[in-house]
Amino acid sequence: MTADDQKMLAEIDRLNKIILDLKNRLDEAGPASSREGEDLFRLMFENHSAIMLLIDPVSRIIVDANASAAEFYGYPRERLRNMSVERINAQPESEIASQRQQAMQGERSSFIFVHRLANNDVRTVEVYISTVNYRGRMLFFSIIHDITERRLAEEQIRNLAFYDPLTGLSNRRLLDDRLTLALQAGKRSGRHAVLMLLDLDNFKPLNDEHGHALGDLLLVDVATRLRGCVREIDTLSRIGGDEFVVMLGELAADREESLSLARIVAEKVRARLEEPHVLVLRGEGGEDRSVEYRCTSSIGAVLFMRGEGNGEALLRRADAAMYLAKQSGGNQVRFHGTDDVG
Q1: pLDDT per residue over 90-131, tens digit each?
Q2: How many domains does the chain have?
Q3: Which of 125, 152, 179 is the last residue of a domain?
Q4: Phi and psi for 197 in degrees, rounded to 5?
Q5: Residue 193: phi, psi to the nearest 5?
């Protein structure tokens, strides 16, 4: 969280305390003091730099908006008044109905929403909601904090922690988590999964002859081809220079049926990767360099379900099978526990 975020959150906390004090005064005092409290509230609402809205929780109409809200959303204040909050909330009603109910019942005060501006830009906002009795009406008083940049920074940090920056595939850390989940899922469902470790057979000569830039292009193309061979629920990882992992989850309960399904996918991967790669390196002077390269793979696989070791043990078995495939000439698939492995 940045210093600006911390400053804004501290200011929001201070505003909430002021609002609570004003509410207590409005609730406990007589009519004259209530008007005094409303005047103080109005003064704060009109002049504060924070983005503020008053919203009818039943009709979901914006009763009022301060100048900061008009500037943020890009609408004149007169336009914001009497506008449905659904106009600025980019999420469907089905997603936010329960959150609105929590706010009405005082069960929760902080929410993350996606708001749409007048120019159709979409921003992620953190909204702090309290109820106020204002001019005889119970309204939502919302303080809005734009956290779009903070969320983007958090997402970038997460990507660096869990994803390979070159190919966009999951890295070893995320793979370990997915393996743990797959083992747990096998205990519940009784279905098998398969872990495939593949190593490119002749990757180094490309780097040696044409440089690492073309080598990187080949790795990216391999990742693209792998994505076309598996389902969305499956896991793809790059765990080393030219080492990739394919994990297929939720296969069949029957071992032989699962093995047959896994062999089909493994052979699909092997065949797809042996097709020639056309690699185009963009030149700074406008001249592109194109290289056609054939790079096969050696694939080692292990079938597993509940109680069959941990992720580290599964990777070792897949590695042993992959090593045998490579020693046998490459461009092959070997399964641990079958195919003369282990």
Answers
A1: 888 777 777 777 877 777 778 899 999 999 999 999 998 888
A2: 2
A3: 152
A4: -110, 125
A5: -135, 170
Residues 333 and 325: beta-carbon distance below 8 Å: yes
In the predicted structure, residue 30 carries a pLDDT above the cut 50: no
188: CATH: 3.30.70.270
The angle formed by the CA atoms of residues 70, 71 and 76, to the nearest 5 degrees, is 40
Please report whether residue 185 resides in a domain.
Answer: yes
Taken as a whole, the chain contains a residue count of: 342
- Between residues 108 and 212, which one has the greater pLDDT? 212
Instruction: Look at residue 32 in the predicted model and tell me its pLDDT.
Output: 46
CA angle 211/213/216 to nearest 5° reads: 115
Shared-domain flag, residues 301 and 222:
yes
CA–CA gap between residue 14 and residue 37 (Å, rounded): 17
Catalytic residues: 242
Which of 152, 178, 201 is a domain's end point?
152
CA–CA gap between residue 253 and residue 303 (Å, rounded): 12
Strand partners, 297: 200
Q: What is the C-alpha to C-alpha distance for residues 55 and 111, in angstroms, rounded to an integer? A: 15
* The pair of three-digit structure tokens given for residue 267, joined into one six-digit string: 């052979």
User: Residue 205 has which token pair?
Assistant: 């000569």
Q: Do 299 and 196 contact (CB within 8 A), yes or no?
A: yes
What range does the domain containing 228 cover? 163-335
Alpha carbon of residue 313 to chain centroid: 29
Q: Which CATH number belongs to the domain containing residue 52 in this structure?
A: 3.30.450.20
Instruction: Of 136, 141, 149, give the one whose Cα is nearest residue 34.
Output: 136
| Higher pLDDT pick, 99 / 27 | 99
Same domain flag for 77 and 106: yes
Q: What is the DSSP letter of 258?
A: H
Long-range contacts of residues 85-94, Cβ cutoff 8 Å, at least 24 apart: 85/53, 85/55, 85/60, 85/61, 86/60, 87/116, 88/115, 88/116, 88/117, 89/113, 89/114, 89/115, 89/116, 90/114, 90/115, 90/116, 90/122
User: Are residues 186 and 71 part of one domain?
Assistant: no
| More confident position, 157 or 1 | 157
Its pTM stands at 0.63
